[in-house]
Predict the structure of 17.8 kDa class I heat shock protein.
Amino acid sequence: MAEQAPSDLPNEEFKPFCEWKRLEDSDVLQVHLAEFKKEELRVRIKNNSVLTLTGERLAAGDWKKIRFNSEIKLPKDTPPDQIRAKFGDSVLSITMPKKKASPASIDNACPRNFISGVKSSLARLKFSKESAVAMAVAGLILASGAYYLIENPNPH
């Protein structure tokens, strides 16, 4: 009986168990790959936006190849050149650091004062200095008139 060449072996596709951990400064993907060796795995990044994981090994005694292929869209805040992969104890750990916010983006994300943070139509109004002074004077006159009427209900 002739032996099959490795390229002629039947393939068995499988989906590995994955765990996604979100940390403050990074995301970590842990892929559980029992019976795989480091040399049988490949981690690549396509178009700076998709993480591609592939693996292929020979099944012991079954004369077939065990394969997997997974594609995962990278989080937008992940710099592709800083992604690191480590394989040990049958777990492929892929660490994806998050981009650090620049001081300018932090400054723009925080309201400069209380009014700019209020999400109402009043917060979006823009006044010139003259309009603001006129409104303040009108408010003061109205408040004074209301006080006078409360204190002197019967002026006759």
About this structure: Confidence is low (pLDDT under 50) at residues 110-123.
